[in-house]
Amino acid sequence: MVLSKLKTVFLSIAVTILAASLISFPRESFEASIRGLNMWWEIVFPSLLPFFIISEMLIGFGVVKFIGVLLEPLMRPLFKVPGVGGFVWAMGMASGQPAGAKFTSRLRQEGHITKIEAERLVSFTNSSNPLFIFSAVAVGFFNNPKIGLLLAASHYLGNICVGVIMRFYGNETPDVSRDVRKKFKIRAALSVLHQTRIKDNRPIGKLLGDAVNSSIQTLLMIGGFIILFSVINKLLYLLHITAILAKTVELLMSSLSFPDMLSIPFISGLFEITMGSQLISQVQDATLLQKAIITSFILAFSGFSIQAQVASILAQTDIRFKPFFIARILQGIFAALFALILWKPLYVHFNKHEQPSNAWPVFGDGSLANHFYHKMVEIGPLITILSLCVYILILFTRLKKS
């Protein structure tokens, strides 16, 4: 009871300080809000929307169950989750955070996975997509395309390690797919595909409308969190709270022979990974290896901004947030260690060999990923506007019918 009252008092004071800060720093708050809006408007919305809509369609048509039967022999022994977890893992890696939480929640709502399996699955299927790591971080912030391979390898290997560790989390769940694994055939997978589609008897138009409606609602919520934490991060810096928190990690930095100048970017990265990565890349006193280690940690930790987005998505189900938060800390540690271990083989070794002049790097200044990133910035707002118009049209039609 006492802890509950203290929590109430703390939250009330925090919100009051936040409101007073918004009044005290209106221009800075507005600029931070615009920065968060631009990130959502240009990149996040148009890049995540197709994955969200397609995933809803795949679930409705039974394709996810089909994939689940095929991947059961891999996902069950390795991560102790059903084969459908392979779909969430792949989609989460391709589309970026917080897609893994969205797809996991959807499967839980459909009853494809149990509560414990969902908590295991969501812990390792949320990751930054390769486009963000290579283009935004490596090229945009570090101006060094070759560091992207190190960051990506550390990030995804850390994900796998977390998945293997989380297989020991929770009590054993009933192995409902044992019979399916004994009869592992394409025919069995096709049978599951057909039965799932028959059970979901929604017409294609209704299914598509539901997919668009659900996806855009989730993305609107994500946009709100991005803008909010962009403002909070800026206000914490202006109120010197970031500097105060940085003092607490300076001792840790010093014990690891890291310069103190990395402490403030590190704290910023704990709240929002984009700003943190950018600030880390601008520190002059740190070596590139030290920057890569700290960046790997905050990319894996995901930042409180993304964690808040995940928490709001999981709140729609019975999936608990605590295992996800612990997994983020574990992945941050693993990613930082992998960045240190892989520094020589993945960065120093490849840096010794100059690329032929006629080669077109996959992840470089003239790369396909970087070209796609800049194209997304150009056409992203148009995609966002058109998608919102479609959403409003669907919503208006349904309200009119009801």
From TrEMBL:
InterPro entries: Gate_dom, Spore_IM_YlbJ
Residue ranges constituting the Nucleoside transporter/FeoB GTPase Gate domain according to the UniProt record: 44-142, 219-315
Source domain of life: Bacteria
Keyword list, A-Z: Membrane, Transmembrane, Transmembrane helix
A Pfam family matched in the record: Gate
TM segment ranges: 48-71, 83-101, 121-142, 149-169, 216-239, 251-273, 293-313, 325-343, 379-399
Protein name in UniProt: Sporulation integral membrane protein YlbJ
Organism this protein belongs to: Neobacillus cucumis
Phylogenetic placement of the source organism: Bacteria, Bacillati, Bacillota, Bacilli, Bacillales
Gene assigned in the entry: ylbJ
